[in-house]
Design goal:
By secondary structure, this protein is mainly α. The chain contains seven helices and two strands.
Amino acid sequence: MRLDKFTLRGQEAIQAGIELAERNQNQQVEPEHILCAMLDQPESIVRPLLGKLGANVQVIKNDCEAAVARFPRVQGGQQYFSPRLSQIFTAAQKRAEKMQDEFISTEHLLLAIAEEKDGAAGKLLR
């Protein structure tokens, strides 16, 4: 996935997700890392959007951080995108194309994560 296909906020969320995985010694960057990063973005649309849907953003953030804490820890090595996250990126790109958006935004990422059936992040959002 090319980062230049993402909006600035999307790129920031991905970079922050990678950094979160690195801090937690998680070799794979998972959708939960990206969701936590988006929830931490002060100027992102994600927090207000979830709030308008009636979700308790702080509970989602706490549960997301707990999910990240359960991932395996690995000493050394390079972070890489998990197969789940690669699927999220593909789904977000398809959603952006369907909506006739030129770039993949945090909203597209959020929708793709919410639609994921296998991971904790999707379950948290549903």
